[in-house]
Amino acid sequence: MNEDESIKFACAIDEGIVLTVARGLDMVSDLEKTFAAVRARIGPPSLILGCDCILRFLEAQELGIQQRIGDLMIENNVVGFATYGEQFNSMHVNQTFTGVALGSSRVRAGG
Asked: Positive or negative CA dihedral for 95, 99, 103, 109?
């Protein structure tokens, strides 16, 4: 949102597209929970190939949590690149972190 109350988008917007505004979660806490769930499922990740929206990076920088986010990425063996969000069905979604986690633990049926 700009000072003049206009909106600047980092994606293509066509007339008639419905805009949905979401409220973010605590980025550090949410990332800690996500990585804990990954470790519970596959053990310590050997590698996580991550796609992190540049807007998350900018928000982390603005909030002063960039170092903690970086530390979490290092602790969980994340490598990857910045994106401008992702396509989900026909909708553009940004401020996302998506990835593929590789681990060495076998997951038991039902777990």
From this structure: positive
DSSP H or E stretch at residue 102: strand 97-103
pTM score above 0.90:
no
Strand order in the sheet with 78-83: 78-83, 45-53, 97-103
- Higher local confidence (pLDDT), 92 or 30: 30
Residue 110 clears pLDDT 60, i.e. is over it: no
Which pLDDT score, from 0 to 100, does residue 106 have?
A: 64
Residue 98: beta bridge partners? 51
Helix 54-63, helix 27-42: angle, nearest 10: 120
d(CA 58, CA 61): 5
